[in-house]
């Protein structure tokens, strides 16, 4: 299984295609005007997102065969699952017509990824119909699959049947601290335990190509049990632009796996995670969006048991439009720890 970003207790607690066929293939003009409000980055001066220039920039080796490299590897030294998902979707999207866009993906992680080797992506053109195209992808290392992946693409088909849930009411990202700023705030506490300092410093040393602003950060020191619900604003670091919606979908697939499974562990602050990994992942794309602008990631876990946990997620544009939905089941093995405070 692919390594989770929250593979240790410290990491979990301290860091707590694409255009929808139903909405059209372009995200320009007034579609995302409200989504741009409050995003004050000078995009022309901002660096091109490393997710575009490196992580999702696959090398073509042969027809329907690609090679992907790594940018960020978790401290546990196993590949990040979101990277493999995103790269597999890039490979799949290269084999379909320009007039179809990903509406869903489903995948199983079957082996751990080796960060010392690149990943090969072999695409099978499973089906091309009049409205839908299906692609199957195997992510391969050491001659064996580490990910089994399928994606479906659809031609734009308008319909009068349209509805969605209501976006949660939360503070805007401009009023919140980033995960890195929260870590610095915790480190300024003179009573902070040495072990906690080490975990926070390790987190700050990582070069994660994602920016996060938690809405309801957990109490990382007093082990307070929380509902299995998590809310945070998220966007890719750097500039991507408006035009390539298939690319935004691939970036969102990468982002969707970050700090996701840890939602199932929020009610259990006195359990230390000895091992955690994602088993499968699914994603549905509903409306146009930009992955380099703030989106609210609403995560909740309806069930956990048998050393597994199920998590559902919704990615909201800041104008209240539901951009994508996600689901994942993961495995985690835990060990009880003391209930004393870390302060």
From TrEMBL:
SUPFAM superfamilies: Thioesterase/thiol ester dehydrase-isomerase. GO terms for biological process: acyl-CoA metabolic process; fatty acid catabolic process; peroxisome organization. Residues 1-44 are annotated as: Disordered. Residues 1-13, 33-44 have a biased composition (Basic and acidic residues). Its main location: other. CDD domains: Thioesterase_II_repeat1 (cd03444), Thioesterase_II_repeat2 (cd03445). Residues 72-154 form the Acyl-CoA thioesterase-like N-terminal HotDog domain. InterPro entries: ACOT8-like_C (IPR049450), Acyl-CoA_hotdog (IPR042171), Acyl_CoA_thio (IPR003703), HotDog_dom_sf (IPR029069), TesB_ACOT8-like_N (IPR049449). Residues 17-29 have a biased composition (Polar residues). It comes from the Eukaryota. PANTHER family: ACYL-COA THIOESTERASE, ACYL-COENZYME A THIOESTERASE 8. Homodimer. Belongs to the C/M/P thioester hydrolase family. This is Acyl-coenzyme A thioesterase 8. It comes from Lepisosteus oculatus (Spotted gar).
């Amino acid at each position: 299984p692919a390594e989770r970003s929250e593979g240790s207790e410290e990491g979990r607690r301290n860091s707590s295609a694409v255009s929808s066929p139903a909405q059209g293939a372009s995200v320009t003009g007034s579609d995302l005007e409200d989504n741009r409000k409050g995003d004050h980055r000078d995009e022309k001066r901002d660096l091109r997102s490393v997710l575009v220039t490196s992580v999702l920039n696959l090398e073509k080796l042969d027809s329907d065969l690609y090679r992907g490299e790594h940018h960020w590897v978790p401290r546990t030294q196993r590949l990040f699952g979101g990277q493999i998902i995103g790269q597999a979707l890039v490979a799949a999207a290269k084999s379909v017509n320009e007039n179809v866009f990903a509406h869903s993906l489903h995948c199983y992680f079957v082996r751990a990824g080796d960060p010392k080797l690149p990943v090969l992506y072999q695409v099978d053109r499973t089906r091309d119909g009049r409205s839908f195209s299906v692609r199957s992808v195997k992510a391969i290392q050491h001659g064996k699959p580490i990910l089994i992946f399928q994606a479906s693409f659809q031609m734009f088909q308008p319909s009068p049947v349209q509805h969605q849930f209501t976006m949660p009411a939360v503070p805007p990202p401009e009023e919140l601290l980033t995960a890195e700023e929260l870590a610095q705030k915790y480190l300024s506490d003179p009573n902070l335990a040495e072990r906690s300092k080490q975990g926070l410093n390790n987190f700050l040393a990582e070069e994660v190509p994602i920016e996060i602003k938690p809405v309801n950060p957990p109490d990382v020191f007093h082990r307070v049990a929380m509902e299995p619900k998590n809310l945070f604003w998220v966007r890719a670091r750097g500039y991507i632009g408006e035009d390539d919606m298939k690319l935004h979908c691939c970036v969102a697939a990468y982002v969707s796996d970050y700090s996701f499974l840890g939602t199932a562990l929020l009610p259990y602050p006195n359990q230390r995670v000895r091992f955690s990994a994602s088993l499968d992942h699914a994603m549905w794309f509903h409306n146009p969006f930009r992955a380099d602008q703030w989106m609210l990631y609403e995560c909740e876990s309806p069930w956990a048991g048998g050393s597994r946990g199920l998590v559902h997620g919704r990615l909201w544009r800041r104008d209240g439009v539901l951009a994508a939905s996600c689901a994942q089941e993961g495995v985690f093995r835990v060990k009880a720890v003391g209930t004393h405070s870390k302060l």
